[in-house]
């Protein structure tokens, strides 16, 4: 038992202390959170836009279909089908090795900033597809009388959606959006395939330097779990605050 415990202590020392290996984990957490936060912002903006377009199309009278809105709805449906029907890793690889060199031919390959921008774009586009369906379900759950009330007050469609429908829909879909955020945080671990030094890549580097796999990988598992628990607590607190505001 004593020898086993000494071995664990030695593994912990080599993983986190030896040659300042903890730096890999600290920088990895920073990059993981940065990619997650920026991708979430992009995903929410894109998702809300797609959700509004699809909801507006579905709410049109059968005899008064807008041609432009129909085209936009078709583009949105194609986007949702492709993004939700292909793996995130494949999308990331296509973004980095196929799309990125074409769109940014003069960019420096392999730099951290370049890799982060590529990862944010890939994850943001992917997250937007799921956020779109979440938000759309929230919009469709709002009674049609809310839209009619807003229009009767002189608001146009965009302002009615902005000030009346979307805020109510946001409250309804907050738990689902929270789950999407947690999923996005964990999915960022695959950015290692393009060389970005996130938390998972940091553990892989330490494992290669120390030839110890147990502590580095268990360590990042605990770190991911801790981040998810913090996010879950914050989301729960936000939900309770929103429920209190509804009771006033």
Short description:
The chain is mainly alpha-helical and 248 residues long. It is built from 9 helices and no strands.
Fold and architecture overview:
The chain has 248 residues and is mainly alpha-helical. 82% of the residues lie in helices and 0% in strands. The chain is elongated and about 75 Å long. It starts with a helix and ends with a helix. The model has no long low-confidence stretch (mean pLDDT 87).
Shape: elongated
Average pLDDT metric = 87
The arrangement of helices and strands along the chain is HHHHHHHHH
Parts with pLDDT < 50 across at least 5 consecutive residues = none
Report the helical percentage: over 70%
Question: What is the fold's blueprint, element by element?
Answer:
Elements: H1 2-16, H2 22-58, H3 67-85, H4 88-103, H5 112-141, H6 144-152, H7 157-187, H8 199-210, H9 214-247
Helix pairs in contact: 2-3, 2-5, 2-7, 2-8, 3-5, 4-5, 5-7, 6-7, 7-9, 8-9
Key structural traits:
248 residues; 0% strand; single chain; mainly alpha
């Amino acid at each position: 038992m004593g020898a086993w415990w000494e071995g664990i202590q030695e593994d912990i020392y080599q993983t986190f202390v030896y040659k300042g290996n903890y730096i890999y984990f600290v920088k990895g957490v920073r990059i993981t959170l940065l990619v997650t936060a920026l991708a979430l912002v992009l995903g929410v903006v894109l998702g809300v836009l797609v959700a509004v377009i699809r909801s507006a199309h579905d709410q049109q009278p059968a005899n008064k279909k807008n041609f432009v809105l129909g085209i936009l709805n078709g583009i949105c449906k194609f986007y949702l089908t492709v993004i939700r029907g292909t793996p995130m890793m494949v999308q990331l690889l296509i973004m980095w090795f196929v799309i990125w060199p074409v769109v940014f031919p003069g960019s420096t390959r392999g730099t951290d900033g370049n890799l982060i921008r590529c990862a944010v774009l890939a994850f943001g586009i992917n997250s937007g597809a799921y956020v779109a369906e979440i938000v759309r379900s929230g919009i469709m759950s709002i009674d049609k009388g809310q839209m009619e009330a807003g229009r009767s007050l002189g608001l146009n469609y965009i302002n009615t959606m902005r000030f009346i429908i979307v805020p109510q829909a946001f409250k309804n879909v907050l738990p689902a959006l929270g789950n999407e955020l947690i999923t996005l945080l964990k999915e960022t671990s695959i950015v290692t395939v393009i060389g970005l030094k996130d938390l998972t890549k940091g553990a892989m580097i330490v494992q290669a330097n120390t030839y110890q796999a147990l502590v580095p990988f268990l360590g990042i598992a605990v770190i991911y779990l801790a981040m998810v628990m913090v996010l879950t607590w914050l989301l729960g607190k936000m939900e309770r605050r929103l429920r209190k505001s509804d009771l006033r």
